[in-house]
Amino acid sequence: MNALNVSKALSDHYPDVVIRQLGLENCQDTIVGDVMHRGVSGGERKRVTTGEMEFGTKTVVLMDEISTGLDSAATFDIINMQRSVATKLNKTVVIALLQPAPEVFDLFDDVLILNEGEVMYHGPREEADSYFASMGFVRPPGRDVADFLLDLGTKQQRQYERALPVGMNAFPREAREFATIFRQSRIFHDMLRRLEEPLDRELLGRKGEDMDSVPEFQQTFWNSTMTLMHRQAMLTIREKEFLISRAVMITLMGLLNASTFWDVDPTNAQVMLGVLFQCILFLAVGQTSLIPMFMAARDVFYKQRGANFYKTSAYVLSCSVAQLPLAIGESLVFGTLIYWLCGFVSSAENFIIFMILLMMTNLAFAAWFFFITAISPDIHISKPIAMMSIVYFILFAGFVVTKDQVPDYFIWLYWLDPISWCLRALAVNQYRSSAFDVCVYDGIDYCLQFDMNAGEYYMSLFDIPSDKFWIVCGAGFMVGAYVVFMMLSVLVLEYKRYEGPENVTLTKKTIEDADNYVTLETPKTEVNQMIFPNRSTVLDVSEKEKNFVPVTLAFQDLRYSVKSPSNPNESLDLLKGISGFALPGSITALMGSSGAGKTTLMDVIAGRKTEGTINGKILLNGYEATDLAIRRST
């Protein structure tokens, strides 16, 4: 019971533990951001990804070059946390690093040194130094152990060569020579001996049970679906600019269309059906604005699905359900304006059917464009495909080209067009209502003249069947199309993923190419290895006159603030009175921890900030810099 309580307490507080260990307390309520939205810094973004992959009861953690872009303090905190997790939760942690700092290197238990695909050493960290010392490589005092180990197997190892040990004819130079010596070492054989030791029979008997108890996904289908739905709702609410612009567009376009076709004469079937067709088409085309959002979310899905965060079906279902509020809102606003201002039949029953058909059409086309983003490698391909599909939907909808004018070999395209089914259902809903299901309308006896009632006559002009059953068929087709598009999206996202560059072919260079390219590689020579012949000529090269004006960069009391994401009425100061300078002929280091404002400062100086408020002075050679001067100098 105590173990269960400890496990539950750990799972409940684990997010806070990860956030604290990764140093993300200050940005835990900030969006990650992208090229269009300002978010966390580059180092914080890397730590967010690390924390994201920390969740779940995974027993093996593999981390590749997590220190890139991070300061030494952040790297130490992250790896120290991993050491604590490995020790207390009995997890296996493997971390690949480039030149770790001494305090970071001391956190590891074992070290595996790779070079050119060969294992130069694999054993306890504290024995690595003495192991290579036994081969004649002595680490100088003050030299970091990690840097010393990384220099071995390269040209830099000569500085560590001391006395050649007994039994060795020469120092190993290449990685394969180090690997051969390691396979003959005591450390290697001790490792093999431990691996070949017989396991406990009790553990062997429970191995199947232990492995079967590890689920593929940490949550059940419905739990993960609810979690994803909560996330999708939160992401949708955060897109306030998108929602506001969408609402304004729907309202304005609804008023514009309603005022243009104010109180249409129902006997003018061409205009009446044109209003219906335009209403369907507007809602359908409007769903193309979701393609960039779907495409951006797909990249996140690839990463999280690869880590078995959730099932593909749960993700697709949550995305489809998240479209329901938007579909209902858009259809209600736009459809209400069109229906009552354009003079459709005044009946609550017909109005409800009208709204239901519009909502289903909205959802079906949202699912269609979601499927397009699933099958497209990138947004530059998905948008043309979407536009081509819209052309098809318009052409075979039964309005621009009526059914009887469609060639027989293309008639199947007419029956597959969702717009044609919706238009047919809406037309039947309008003209088979009680107001038009009469023989005499507007003084004309349609039964006597055309052997059909008024509504049937108007629909016959566009070869639209008049049976009321087509309303049910239209609604059923839209629901079926919605389900089919979602199921196809599940299959595509599950079995076809565009996680790498497409159409990239790497050709192997031939010897002739290398010989013909004279400047293929410039040989590098160490300063202490340069040999000057006795007969050498020293040329006195005079310094050339500089053909440019050196620039002294200075900035005084530089301040930069943006609106707070949580409260737009408050400002968030990112730079607080920064002053400094950089002289020509010198290199100035801009240092600070991740999120300190280094990139922000350089962006402000270079004039790359397009939002927020900038105060202070930026000087070039003592003169206040203009935008043109900044662009020419930086």
Summarize the structure.
This protein has 634 residues and is α+β, with helices and mostly antiparallel strands.
Write the layout of secondary structure elements.
Layout: H1 2-21, H2 42-52, E1 60-64, H3 72-88, E2 92-96, H4 102-105, E3 110-115, E4 118-124, H5 128-133, H6 145-151, H7 175-183, H8 186-196, H9 201-205, H10 207-212, H11 221-238, H12 240-260, H13 269-286, H14 291-306, H15 312-341, H16 348-375, H17 379-395, H18 411-416, H19 418-431, E5 440-441, E6 444-445, H20 446-450, H21 454-460, H22 469-495, H23 511-516, E7 553-563, E8 571-582, H24 598-605, E9 613-620, E10 623-624, H25 627-633
Parallel strand pairs: 1-2
Antiparallel strand pairs: 3-4, 5-6, 7-8, 7-9, 9-10
Helix pairs in contact: 11-15, 12-15, 13-16, 13-19, 14-16, 15-16, 15-22, 16-17, 16-19, 16-22, 19-21, 19-22
Describe what you observe in this structure.
This protein is 51% helix and 9% strand. It has 634 residues and is of the alpha+beta class. The chain folds into three domains: 2-198, Rossmann fold (3-Layer(aba) Sandwich); 222-495, no CATH class; 553-633, no CATH class. Strands 8-7-9-10 form a four-stranded antiparallel β-sheet, covered by helices on one side. Helix 14 (291-306) crosses helix 16, helix 15 packs antiparallel against helix 16 (348-375) and helix 16 (348-375) runs antiparallel to helix 17. Mean pLDDT is 83; it is low at 516-534.
